[in-house]
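Entry 14. Structure prediction run on the chain below.
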Amino acid sequence: MKIHDLQSQINRHGLSPLYLVIGEEPYFRDQALSMLRVAGQEKNASKLSDPSAAHDSSQMFHVDVVYGDETDASEILAISEEASFFSSRRLLIIKWADKLSARDGEALIPYFQNPNETTTMVMTAAKLDGRTKWVQ
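Output returned:
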C-alpha cells in the first residue's frame, strides 16, 4: 500500500489494530507513523461530546515506542495488553522490527491473530525476511 492509500484506508475504515510499515526510505516510514498518530488523536477527540474537552489527556492516544534491537516479545506483549491510565487507546510503535529475533517474532503470532482492541500496533522496518514464519 502506498502512503496516500494509507490515508484513504484510514478515512474509510478507521484505524486497524495492526500495521506493518516497510520501506527503504525512513522519511516515508515516519510519514506513515505521523498519519497513524494523527488519526488516533482525531478518533479520540471525535468521541468527546464536549468540544472544549478536546485537550483532555484521558482521551488522547497513548504512544509507546520500542526498538526491535532493544526489546523482546514479552515486553511487546506486556505493553500491548497493558491498560493505559492516560488514554482510552494505545499506539505501540515497534521500530526496526527486522531486528527482532525469529523466536520473538513467532511469539507474537498469537497476538497478530487476536490483537487487543484498544491497541494499534505498528511495526516498521526497511526490509523483512519473508521466509520467517512471523512475517508470512
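Residues 47-59 have pLDDT under 50 and may be disordered.
Filed with the rest of this week's runs.
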